[in-house]
Structures are given as C-alpha cells and as structure tokens.
Design brief:
elongated
Length: 207
C-alpha cells in the first residue's frame, strides 16, 4: 500500500509534467487541453491520477471544464486566488510591510537594469507612451518591469503587485508629470537621480 508521502510525490510529479507539457505545446488561455486518455498516454500515468491533478488545477482556477466540450486553459492572472490567500497570510503588520518593501525594491532594481540595458530609442518611445496614453500605476510599472528584460523579476513583481493591491491600502496620488520625470532620469542614466525621483514618487522619503 502506498504511503501518503509517496502519493503526494506522484501527484506533484503529474502536476509538474502537466505544466511542462502546457509550456511545450504553447497553450494559452482559451486553448483546449488534450483529453484525459491522451494525457494519460503522454504522461505515462493512470487516468485516475490525471483526473485528480486536473481537478486540483481547476479548483485553483487555472483550467476549466466545459460539459460536452473538454478542458480549457483559463486566463488566471486576474482571478481571486491571491486575494483569498492574502486573507490568511497577510494578517500582521510585518507581512504587509514585507510585501510593500519587496515590491518597491524590485521596481528599483528594474530601474537600475533599464539604465544598464535599455537603448535611448526604447526609452523615448516609452516617454511618448507615458505622455499620450491613459494608464494606471500598475500599467506604468508593468512597462518598467518589462523594459528591464528580466523574466524572473516580472513574474515575482506581478504576484507581489496582486498581493499589494489586495491590502486595500490608501492609494497614492501620482501625477503624469512624476512618471515623465522618472523616465527623464532614466534617459539621463543618473542612478542617484533615478532613486531620488522614484522615492518621491512612492512617497518613501517620509518613511
């Protein structure tokens, strides 16, 4: 008889295989997953094990089953999982502070990476977008983190951003001119000025 620990290892292994297969096949939100039989054959595991792994992914909001149609990838970037988890793990002031600090530190690191890597043409296009577009703070800093060209930072920042937004903190009022000023300091490549302008934008100088 298999122990619970061995069963857990098998289950986690199937979930990892599913993730690898999804990435390999380039499946995107709305795309249909292979049937249980196909997944069982491709992964080399029993259909019941595949069914349990799919059920767990569905409970997490990563996939959805449509009766008579099959199982499909979901666009889970905006789902409520982060908000749900935050009600359990972000209950004390230190946890809240840690989320804020880590998010802001990643944004600062991304600004430094932009100074090192981004060409002036890209920064000028970004400035033009900043002047002309309508956007939120999240939209602006998503552009910043993307421009830093570090995929791991991007993934971590998106998760932290969702946790940060779930805290229901008082929203900072930031003007378009402050965003433009930040881009101008990036164009100038002056590290100290970038830090100063960012701290003012985030109202960190008073902390």
């Amino acid at each position: 008889m298999n122990s619970p620990q061995n069963n857990t290892k098998v289950y986690i292994g199937i979930v990892k295989q599913l993730r690898t297969m999804i990435e390999h096949d380039g499946l995107k939100p709305g795309d249909r997953l292979p049937s249980e039989r196909e997944l069982s054959e491709r992964l080399g595991v029993g259909r019941s094990s595949v069914r349990e792994a799919l059920r767990a992914l569905e409970l997490l909001g990563l996939i959805e089953t449509r009766r008579g149609e099959g199982t499909f990838m979901r666009d889970f970037r905006g789902h409520q999982l982060v908000q749900l988890l935050s009600t359990f793990i972000l209950q004390d002031k230190k946890s809240i502070r840690d989320v804020k600090e880590t998010k802001f530190l990643i944004e600062l690191d991304c600004l430094w990476l932009i100074i090192q890597k981004a060409g002036e043409d890209r920064l000028l296009r970004f400035k033009k977008w900043t002047l002309e577009a309508d956007y939120t703070d999240d939209d602006f800093f998503l552009e910043i983190v993307t421009l830093a060209d570090n995929h791991l930072f991007l993934r971590i920042w998106i998760i932290l951003k969702d946790y940060y937004n779930s805290l229901d903190l008082e929203k900072m009022v930031i003007t378009k001119q402050q965003y433009v000023e930040l881009i101008d300091t990036l164009i100038s490549r002056k590290d100290s000025e970038v830090i100063r302008v960012y701290r003012n934008l985030r109202n960190l100088s008073k902390d």
